[in-house]
Specification:
The protein is mostly helical and about 120 residues long. It has four helices and two strands.
């Protein structure tokens, strides 16, 4: 649960920051990076539940990068006025993946990825 709370804050922030620094990403309203970030947070958390465990840091991070690139590139098609190139999606996903590596390391090192009997359902 702690990982999800971090993602709810970090993901929209990363998307917003990418709009400030990357010319290929341009938002017309504040809700746009927030919505993309929340969708990304839910997807990333769901993938963590199924994939992340000790020994899967790099595989999980690579899958996060691919999924983030697709989400960041596709979701803006449904938002009016948002401009985002494929290169912008890759750059933003790379920035996101860097933060995910740190989050995954923290979750693995603090044993928050170990599932107990109640989590097996």
């Amino acid at each position: 649960m702690a990982g999800f709370l971090v993602k709810i804050i970090v993901c929209p922030l990363i998307i917003y920051i990418s709009g400030l620094f990357f010319r290929q990403v341009s938002f017309t309203a504040l809700y746009q990076p927030v919505i993309i970030g929340l969708i990304l947070a839910v997807a990333a958390h769901t993938m963590e539940l199924y994939i992340l465990k000790p020994g899967t840091l790099w595989i999980s991070s690579a899958i996060d990068f691919v999924a983030a690139t697709l989400i960041i590139y596709v979701v803006p098609f449904f938002m009016k006025g948002l401009r985002l190139s494929f290169g912008g999606a890759i750059s933003t996903a790379l920035l996101f993946t860097i933060t995910e590596i740190f989050q995954h390391s923290w979750l693995i090192n603090s044993n928050k990825t170990v599932k107990g009997p109640q989590d097996e359902l």
